[in-house]
Amino acid sequence: MMQLVIVPTYNERDNLGELLEGIYKAVADMHVLVVDDNSPDGTGKLASYLMNTRYKGSLFLIERTGKLGLGTAYLAGFKWALERKYQYIFEMDGDLSHNPRHLPSFLQAVKECDLVLGSRYVSGGGVRNWSLLRRLISRGGSLYSRFILGLPFQDLTGGFKCFRREVLEQINLAEIKSNGYSFQIEMTYRAFLKGFRIKEVPIVFEERLTGHSKMSYRIFAEAIVMVWKLRLDRKRLKAGTDTAQAAPPLP
C-alpha cells in the first residue's frame, strides 16, 4: 500500500526530527515528503541530511526558492505524489500540532471513504493550549463556511487530512489559487461537490510549543472572501467543468 504524508515546512528545524520519529513510529511503512520553502533556520538542510542517512528510501524533499505559501506547497506535493502512484496522500503540519498517533485511525477510515478530515469538533476531538480568541476564530471560521457553502462537516479549516488519489486526480488542481485556511476549505468543498465520500475522525490539536504560528489576519480575511467566491461558483464546480468525474467505487 503506497501512502505518503506531505509536510510543508518553513523554519521547523526544531520540530522536524521529533515529527518524523512520531510518523514512523505510528506507521512504519509510511513515506514522507517535506516541502521546504527555503527556511532560513536550515530545515531543508536537516531534511536533506535525514533523507540521505537515517530515513533513506522513505523520506523525500522538495526544496523551493522562497516562502510561496501553504497552498502551493501542498499542490506541489500532490503533483509529486500522483506522479509516483501513491494511493493515500496525507496533509500534515510540520509544527507538531498534528499528532502522528492519529495516522492509523485515518488509514482505517479511508478504507470506507475517499477523504478523511481530522476534526477538532466531533466527539473525541479537541484543542490544547489555545487562547479563547483562537478558539473563537477557528470554530467561527468553520461555522461560517458551513453556513455559506452548505457543508455538513464540523471542522473545515483543519489541515490534517487523507485523500485517496482519485480525489486529487479528479479535482483540477491547477484551478486552486487559495492558501491557508481557505485552501483547506476549498479542497473539501470541491471534493464534496464531486460526490466523494468524506468522513471526519477526531483529533486533538496541540498548539505549537516552539517557533511562531503561521496564522495571520491576512490569511483569515482571505478565507472570508474565498468562501463567497466558491459559493458563487458552485454551479460550475458541481457541473464538473474542471474535468472531474463521478466518484469511483471502492476497491
From TrEMBL:
<dbReference type="GO" id="GO:0004582">
    <property type="term" value="F:dolichyl-phosphate beta-D-mannosyltransferase activity"/>
</dbReference>
<keyword id="KW-0808">Transferase</keyword>
<dbReference type="InterPro" id="IPR001173">
    <property type="entry name" value="Glyco_trans_2-like"/>
</dbReference>
<keyword id="KW-0328">Glycosyltransferase</keyword>
<dbReference type="InterPro" id="IPR039528">
    <property type="entry name" value="DPM1-like"/>
</dbReference>
<dbReference type="InterPro" id="IPR029044">
    <property type="entry name" value="Nucleotide-diphossugar_trans"/>
</dbReference>
<protein>
    <submittedName>
        <fullName>Nucleotide-diphospho-sugar transferases</fullName>
    </submittedName>
</protein>
<feature type="domain" description="Glycosyltransferase 2-like">
    <location>
        <begin position="5"/>
        <end position="171"/>
    </location>
</feature>
<dbReference type="GO" id="GO:0009247">
    <property type="term" value="P:glycolipid biosynthetic process"/>
</dbReference>
<dbReference type="GO" id="GO:0016020">
    <property type="term" value="C:membrane"/>
</dbReference>
<dbReference type="Pfam" id="PF00535">
    <property type="entry name" value="Glycos_transf_2"/>
</dbReference>
<comment type="similarity">
    <text>Belongs to the glycosyltransferase 2 family.</text>
</comment>
